[in-house]
Specification:
The complex is a heterodimer of chains A (268) and B (489). With 268 residues, chain A is mainly alpha-helical. Helices cover 66% and strands 3% of the residues of chain A. In chain A, strands 1-3-2 form a 3-stranded antiparallel β-sheet. The longest helix of chain B has 26 residues. The chains are: A mainly alpha (268), B mainly alpha (489).
Chain lengths: 268, 489
């Protein structure tokens, strides 16, 4: 076996051990060491040189990046997650045919979908989705994320929250918690428009908070314009545009009419 | 010359009906085209070469191995490298016929051939090979031609080169190796950009987009598209394709309004003969419009030659229009093979949300007050807690402005607001404005699209023609004057 390869796999074993112990400092230190070592392999992206050890090297590198992604989730670092995921992606797309499929592939892809959902990057979410095969879409990890997005779009927020209990993988919990926060903001935004007023306990239930105090804190922080009066929460709706709609937008009309005249002049 | 790939797949290649008797006029035709190319190359008139390509496409179905090999003997020096290589791609079944021709024409081809003619020969052989479904030979031939093209830097070759690029990509697509040539295409695009070969850039950009989209690499496609240089379109066909790819990318990235515009424009601009391409455009456009909450008119689905292909989409539209989730589900399942081969399956999943919205809107219009339990029942929401689901769905719909209503949590019902008189708002004014803007824009584009042959004003017109033209102008002037008079009254 190639000495470099042996060295990398030894450090990788230590990384795995550190991950198991949840010793994140050691793990991230080892990881950056590994990443530097990986640069020296010619068979990895973007060169894809055909070296004798190519398959071994590729498999090892893929394993390392998969662990890097998991590590970043455990450290709750979204930027690192994005970086590591993009480094990992070529191993699934470009050399996917040459390597045996990794057991971690679908959970990680699903995790990435979830991240995009949490960060509200829906366009990218759908772009990623297009890359998945019909078989991948059947996988529970991916299906989970896809169904979440659907419920989220429809507004069936309680379905999003019950999905937290059925996470297919333990790493998903972190993002699900983040998602719960996003969902609460969404619900608050919707309720503001949909209700005139709510009883405090109903509001607490709808916003999925456990105590009245939490509700009051939330209101103070996010929506200071809401009022609490004798057990009722009143949303002070801006009485929108009742006056302005009566007014004729004269300046705009003049501009439009003049532009019609100018264009007509050009035609005739 | 409508060469949309979708079209081509349906075409029956070269009917073998022509007997040997027709070879001679065909050869004559090819020779005329060759002469056209020669003069075009000599006078540096790209227009002539464009015409030569167009004429070739017209001859396409009649091409035969024997004719081509004798033409090669005429156009290229026999024994030269290009001649040998190209001849090796042609099938050798009609040996006798060929030899007679080559010997007779070899004597004529003493004249030195221009590089344009050589490239043209590549193109001709390539078209023939693709039509004969000899894809592996076509691949070899196209790769050889691309290698040859890299060493040529002449503006008169650009037209031929852009056609070659197209067939190069097509031959790889037909054998399913499109990803192999991606690097090559990118390199060619770079070279074309450096040489200011705009037609080449346009063609190559489209080929690259097609290449990416073939593998659903929307991200890369969009990155390339947004960074590649853009300019006034040179070829209508290429522009249509570009618009179609652009529409697809935007649909995936949820920019439905822009996507709709691109797709509809692509469908409108595409030549009538490119039926397959227009069907594709229409399929996507229908989905995008549904996603936007519009319901496409029935006439869209009744266009000539498209009824059958658009049938699944028609039924889908119907389900969305009614707002029936169950019907929507059965249709999505029934046609799932069609949808997945069109690559629209994921988009249809997105539509579920629109179905609910439409259903909700219908309910909101029909009832002034309805309990949430009934809403859930009517929408056929099947979940563990339908009332809570209905409540949050309704509240989101209210927030997004899809319905105008309020919720009453205590009583568990939804109260619709009175719909106001739309004519008291600025809505009609806005609709009026957008329509006028569309018409004016259309007019301006039409004026801009008028084309005049270069140098036409320099060419002398004959005395007779001039008289005719002057007479016409006078008549027109008189006509206008009369109209003006009428206006005065």
């Amino acid at each position: 076996m190639d000495p470099k390869l042996t060295e990398v796999s030894q450090i990788f074993e230590r990384l795995k051990a550190a991950l198991l112990r949840n010793d994140f400092d050691t793990a991230s230190r080892l990881l950056s060491q590994l990443k530097i070592l990986l640069i020296e392999f010619k068979s990895l992206p973007p060169l894809f040189a055909e070296t004798p050890n190519a398959i071994q090297e590729l498999t090892l590198a893929r394993d390392i990046y998969e662990h890097a992604v998991v590590l970043s989730v455990k450290m709750e670092d979204q930027d690192a997650f994005e970086r590591d995921f993009f480094q990992l992606k070529p191993y699934y797309t470009d050399v996917g045919g040459r390597l045996p499929q990794s057991a971690q592939e679908y959970p990680i892809l699903g995790l990435n979908l979830l991240r995009l959902l949490v960060q509200n990057r829906i366009a990218e979410f759908h772009t990623e989705l297009e890359l998945l095969s019909a078989k991948a879409l059947e996988n529970p990890c991916i299906k989970h994320a896809v169904e979440l997005e659907q419920s989220f779009m429809e507004g069936a927020y309680n379905r999003v929250l019950t999905a937290r209990q059925t996470v297919p993988h333990e790493t998903y919990v972190y993002f699900m918690d983040l998602l719960a926060r996003t969902v609460r903001d969404e619900i608050a935004g919707c309720s503001e428009k949909a209700y005139e007023s709510l009883r405090v306990e109903d509001a607490r239930q709808i916003l999925l908070l456990s105590s009245d105090q939490e509700l009051f804190d939330y209101i103070k922080e996010e929506h200071p314009e809401w009022e609490v009066k004798n057990g009722w929460l009143v949303f002070n709706k801006v009485k929108e545009s009742s006056a302005s709609s009566k007014e004729i937008p004269s300046l705009q009309l003049i501009n439009q009419t003049l532009s019609y005249a100018r264009e007509l002049e050009r035609i005739v | 010359m409508t060469q949309d790939v979708e079209m081509k797949e349906q075409q029956v290649p070269a009917a073998p009906s022509n007997s040997t008797s027709s070879t001679t006029p065909l050869l004559q035709h090819l020779k005329e085209i060759a002469a056209l190319i020669e003069t075009g190359a000599y006078a540096r008139e790209v227009r002539r070469i464009l015409r030569a390509v167009r004429l070739t496409i017209a001859l396409r179905r009649k091409l035969k191995a024997s004719v081509i090999s004798s033409f090669l003997g005429f156009a290229l020096t026999p024994g030269s490298e290009a001649h040998q290589r190209l001849s090796s791609y042609l099938p050798k079944d009609d040996q006798n016929d060929m030899e007679v021709d080559t010997t007779s024409s070899a004597t004529q081809s003493i004249m030195k051939h221009s590089p344009e003619l050589e490239i043209y020969c590549y193109l001709l052989v390539l078209i023939f090979l693709i039509d004969q479904k000899k894809y592996s030979e076509a691949k070899a031939c196209s790769s050889a031609s691309i290698a040859r093209l890299k060493n040529l830097n002449r503006r008169t070759v650009d037209v031929l080169a852009s056609r070659l690029y197209f067939f190069y990509s097509l031959s790889y697509e037909l054998t399913g190796d499109l990803s192999e040539i991606r690097g090559n295409l990118l390199a060619l695009h770079r070279v074309a950009t450096l040489r200011h070969d705009e037609l080449g850039q346009e063609t190559l950009l489209n080929l690259l987009l097609r290449n990416y989209l073939h593998y659903n690499l929307y991200d890369q496609a969009e990155k390339l598209r947004s960074k590649a240089p853009r300019f006034e379109a040179h070829s209508n066909q290429q522009f249509c394709r570009y618009l179609f790819y652009l529409g697809k990318i935007r649909t995936i990235q949820l920019e439905y309004t822009d996507a709709k515009e691109s797709l509809l424009q692509a469908a409108r601009k595409a030549p009538v003969a490119a039926l397959g391409f227009r069907v594709q455009c229409n399929k996507w456009a229908v989905i995008v419009r549904l996603l936007l909450g519009e319901i496409p008119e029935r006439t869209v689905f009744m266009q000539k030659g498209m009824e059958k292909a658009l049938r699944p989409y028609f039924e889908l539209t119907n389900a969305v229009r009614i707002g029936d989730l169950e019907l929507f589900k059965t249709i999505a399942e029934k046609f799932s093979t069609t949808f997945s081969s069109d690559g629209t399956n994921n988009l249809i999943v997105r539509l579920r949300h629109n179905v609910i919205r439409t259903g909700l809107r219908n309910i909101s219009i029909s009832y002034s007050r309805i309990s949430l339990a009934d809403v859930a029942k009517k929408l056929r929401l099947d979940s563990s807690n339908p009332v809570a689901d209905a409540e949050s769905i309704v509240s989101k719909a209210i927030r997004d402005g899809a319905i105008d209503a309020t919720l009453d949590h205590g009583n568990g019902w939804m109260v619709s607001k009175e719909t106001g008189d739309i004519y008291s708002t600025n809505e009609p004014q806005q609709a009026f404005n957008s329509r006028i803007a569309f018409c004016l824009n259309m007019h301006n584009e039409a004026v801009r699209a008028l084309r005049f042959p270069p140098n036409s004003h320099k060419e002398k017109e004959s005395a007779e023609k001039r008289r005719e033209r002057q007479q016409q102008e006078q008549e027109l002037a008189k006509h206008i004057a009369e109209e003006d008079d009428d206006d005065d009254f």
